[in-house]
Amino acid sequence: MVQKGTILSETLTPRQIVEELDKYIIGQSEAKRAVAIALRNRARRQMLPEDMREEVAPKNIIMIGPTGVGKTEIARRLAKLANAPFIKVEASKYTEVGYVGRDVESMIRDLTELAVNMVKNEQTEVVREKAEMSAEERLLNYLLPPSTHIRSADDSAEDESTTIEVSIDEDGQVEILEPEEPTRETRSHDALRERTRERFRERLRAGKLDDNPVEIEVQNRNIPMIEILTPGGFEEMDINLKDVFGSMFPKQTRRRLVTVAEAREVLIMEEAEKLIDTDKVATEAIKRVENTGIVFLDEIDKIAGRESRTGPDVSREGVQRDILPIVEGSTVATKYGMVRTDHILFIAAGAFSASSPSDLIPELQGRFPIRVNLYSLNQGDFVRILLEPRNALIKQYTALLETEAIQIEFTEDAVNEIATLAYEVNQSMEDIGARRLHTIMEKLVENISFDAPDLGEKHICIKASDVREQLADVVQDKDLSRYIL
User: Fold this and answer.
1) What is the CATH number of the domain that holds 363?
2) Better-predicted residue by pLDDT, 229 or 326
3) What's the predicted TM-score (pTM) here?
4) Which range of residues forms the domain containing residue 86?
5) Which pLDDT value is given to residue 173?
6) Exposed site from 10, 247, 280, 452, fewest CB < 10 Å?
């Protein structure tokens, strides 16, 4: 029995994880079960005593299947469910000759950067209320600068040339008025300023000043970039020279003319950054990377197989040996601190059409103990993909055309015909999985999308005959379909 208030109680069960993945991905139950167990095991590990916790290694996964069957989508949706730092890396890019820039460890640095941004966004929401108050005061200072002298009844005649009066009309437009004759109701300048400031505040909160232009000062975010030579090659490192040399580089600001609504958001972000403890953000980000980070190594099959003696590729085995320390557990230096990779979950994927997982070096194979097969999609899968997921293609095109006040409807036989054509083209041409549906759907609604702003008919029903008519030439002409579909 799971106790309330524990990490396990706050984590989805494997069955719930699979149910969530089913909302976006059709089929591939074996792969879904594998990643669901891997995710749940992370929560289980956090419940163990510290000495045992360090010994439990993540069960990394290799997903084997053709393109377009859901490998990347499963990993991406899994990371979103777990609210975990996630990065996708193409393993084949490390085989490029002359690849200048980042070494293999850069995947961990990029993952840490993503985690820092994730934590920073969360902390921004926590301090947003305070930041909004500070930003409001700054914005009022821009709208009504402290140096502005607001006329009161006590002002003498000789001071009239240096005084102004501020008025706000019903539309929220700010006007500077000519001095008027003093009234008998006298107030101090401070009281009059405060009253005017409160009137501005009321209209600012009501949104009546949102479209007014205002000039504000913002910090210059251009950070000097330099490249240094590291053992792994040239490594881009963003070094803030102002932090290195202190007062030699005072804070730079620049003036921007924006609307009040835009200024409010800019100032809120600046004030939030002042309230956020950057050291705590970095510490929390590193903790998340080490315990919940997910790295998706795509196209791992491209670095498997026998060595190529010809062609531009560098040693595939060499790339595997570079990746191996990261997967098996090492410490990577980042600008936020040292990051251990021992408990990061690695999910590798590849078609393995010209090679097999056994072609990987034995050491790397041992670090991916879980292997799952993803199967090619059939006609029935295509029908479900078109209709069932929350982001189903038909739902997407329907929503897009609704923005033009056009109601588009697909009959059941039309959906079946689309699925049939996609399956047939995949069988006769290269099998690119569900991505084939994107090309067929785009070709099918091409004319409607183009003519949408000028169409008089606002309700369009697409039948199976329309699908065959629109796509017949393309499907029959193999040479043409090779380029279009």
Assistant:
1) 3.40.50.300
2) 326
3) 0.75
4) 14-116+282-373
5) 57
6) 247
